[in-house]
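Lecture 7, part 2: worked example. A protein chain together with fe (ii) ion.
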Amino acid sequence: MTVTQLAYLGFEVSDLSAWASFGTEVLGMERVDEGADGSFKLRMDRRNWRLAIHPGPADDLAYVGWEVSDLLGPIEALEARGVEVGWGHDLTGERAVESLCFFDDPAGVRTELVTGSAQQLDPFHSPKLLGGFVAGQLGLGHVVLTANDKAESRRFYEETLGFRLSDTIVTRYFGYDIDMDFFHANPRHHSLAFGGPQPKKLNHFLLEVDRLDDVGLCMDRTLKAGLPLVQTLGRHPNDGMLSFYAQTPSGFNFECGWGGREVDASTWQPTTYDRLSEWGHHPPMVLSPRKPK
Ligand SMILES: [Fe+2]
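Predicted complex, written out as structure tokens:
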């Protein structure tokens, strides 16, 4: 396999201070690496950083960083498909990596492949979490990206970056047709998923915690911060994740989950599920509290 994990995400956000309190107070990450332009990074494990927050009007994903075991294999596969690949020599210091190349995926998402991400000896302890984040070798979590053409994006990610299909979900969800593919690059059930076009370059990113209570506590902090809940607590059938979804200060969503399944790539057989959730994950609009008499 070529890609070994989801290394980092970079966001361009219009409200830096909202993201600073969201990242530290709601998510429980540590703010590090202040930039002269007001940008900053967020840390969640031994990696120097996992999320980068840049000022700008887009309120969207700016780039995705995938760790690879070797850069030359994917570069050859990308160039064979006619994809223009650039070398990011001037970005290695900023990203704290040894080497970096970049290109746009079929939907125009800036994608960076990196090797040699900087790490720290000291383990990370969140002041907000009872336990810790499930990250490390499994990567920062997962990301659900926009895709103009799901079949084209699937061929691209499988054939150039070595992602493997975990499974597919085809269903209807509160009036929407869902047809999503989920991909693994390491034992995490999925590091990447996509279904179709999204209003922004990503639908959501997931952070996983190792204590169930930290999902509930993160939901409490989310509600206290006034961030809109997007899906109630629920359990997905494919990765087994117990999670909730809410909106970041930039309008795209985040998922906080616990109990994600790991896959053994040597024996894994993809299946198709006919439901998005075993229970829960209701949008708040279906919650209709009974009016007091
Ligand atoms: Fe998710």
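DSSP finds five helices and 18 strands in the chain. The radius of gyration is 18 Å. Keep this in mind for problem set question 3.
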